[in-house]
Write a structure and sequence with these properties.
There is one protein chain. Strand 3, helix 9 and strand 4 form a beta-alpha-beta unit. The chain contains ten helices and four strands; from the N terminus they run ααααααβαβαβαβα. The protein has two domains: 206 residues, Methane Monooxygenase Hydroxylase, Chain G, domain 1, CATH 1.20.58.220; 131 residues, 3-Layer(aba) Sandwich (Rossmann fold). Strands 2-1-3-4 form a four-stranded parallel β-sheet. By secondary structure, it is α/β, with parallel strands linked by helices.
């Protein structure tokens, strides 16, 4: 009975994966073939099906745990499928975001920016497919190869970012078009990240080796330093710093942020980051306590209050401090506040480019 339930569960997660893969493929094919109907299908038909799969698989996992109380590897497998299911639902959401931005590009066909979206998407699709295959076949080596591919995705994302920013600088009339290209690029990169997350879990399941948050740092193929930005509320400055360093140098650093008194991401920070093609709308404020015991190469405080109240983190190799004025203290009209947030964003970006 348990074996039958597990076979059914694996079949369901495989079908969910196939649907999400097709959503990514349709989004890119719709852009390449100028097929608006295919792009609409992703949101109107496929997304509801993906949501149904997520609910159904969640219920299957819960019922299996309640009915059979699995242990050891069986329990790890059920819990991993539960997490994969959540990752797949998020990948489906990213595919919808891609289709929406592709629709915008098709409605403005005369504009051309030199970014090879299909090439980047093909790598991300392969990573997703291989991540699921590594789970189904318990293939740790395949999972590791997916983790290595994430470095390439990060490199291509950064190259595309530079090209689009250059185009926006030279012609202000294509800013909105260019932002949609960056949105596609960012969503493809998130798909690759989620695929990598799945593979990290596979490696743990097969080898018992935890590489989550820091891929095997003894492996010469993948070696990045870990950076934690801290400010009081983890609302604006540290969030922008995290996103900027990730975007500029994701091939070199794993980046995180936290606050001593987290208070939610400031909507003005979300707006000014979106203006340069960086989406932090799904970022969350995190309490510094959640990183207790974690190892970091650099812990960087970006406000004076955080410097004074930041506790000693035993896992930190080096501490740095760079004080930026708090844009959230600004009073005035929306445009006046946005101007201050833009200045703060640009100051942080300049500092990162000089110091990383």
């Amino acid at each position: 009975m348990f074996e039958e339930k597990m076979i059914n569960l694996k079949r369901e997660i495989s079908e969910h994966t196939s649907l999400v893969e097709s959503m990514i493929e349709k989004s890119i094919r719709g852009l390449v073939n100028k097929d608006k109907e295919l792009l609409r299908e992703v949101k109107e038909k496929d997304e509801p099906r993906a949501n149904d799969y997520e609910i159904e698989i969640d219920e299957l996992c819960t019922n299996i745990v309640a009915q059979f109380q699995p242990k050891g590897k069986d329990l790890r497998t059920v819990l991993m499928i539960l997490k994969m299911n959540n990752d797949l639902e998020r990948i489906g959401d990213h595919a919808v975001n891609i289709s929406e931005s592709c629709m915008y590009l098709l409605n403005h066909p005369m504009i051309k920016v030199d970014v090879d979206i299909p090439k980047i998407a093909d790598i991300a699709k392969t990573m997703l497919k291989n991540s699921i295959n590594s789970f189904m076949n318990e293939d740790a080596e395949l999972a590791k190869s997916v983790c290595e591919s994430d470095v390439l995705i990060d490199k291509l994302k950064y190259e595309a970012y530079n090209k689009v920013i250059a185009s926006m600088t030279s012609d202000s009339k294509i800013i909105k078009y260019s932002l949609n290209i960056l949105r596609i690029n960012n969503n493809i990169e998130r798909i690759a990240d989620l695929s990598t997350n799945i593979c990290e879990e596979v490696i743990f399941m097969v080898e018992g080796k935890v590489i989550k948050h820091h891929r095997n740092e003894d492996d010469g193929n993948i070696s990045k330093k870990k950076v934690l930005f801290i400010c009081t509320h983890n609302s604006a400055r540290s969030q922008m710093a995290e996103a900027l360093l990730k975007t500029l140098y994701s091939d070199k650093y794993y980046v995180y942020s936290a606050g001593t008194e987290p208070a939610g991401v400031n909507p003005y920070a979300v707006k000014v980051m979106a203006e340069i093609g960086i989406d932090i709308s799904d970022y969350q404020s995190k309490n510094l306590d959640s990183f207790s015991g974690k190892r970091f190469d650099f812990v960087i405080t970006v406000c004076d209050n955080a410097k004074e109240t930041c506790p000693f983190l035993p896992g930190a190799e080096k501490y740095k401090h760079k004080s930026f004025s708090d844009p959230a203290q600004t009073k005035g009209t929306d445009e006046e506040i946005l101007a201050v947030f833009r200045r703060s964003r640009d100051e942080i970006k300049e500092w990162i480019e000089k110091n990383f």
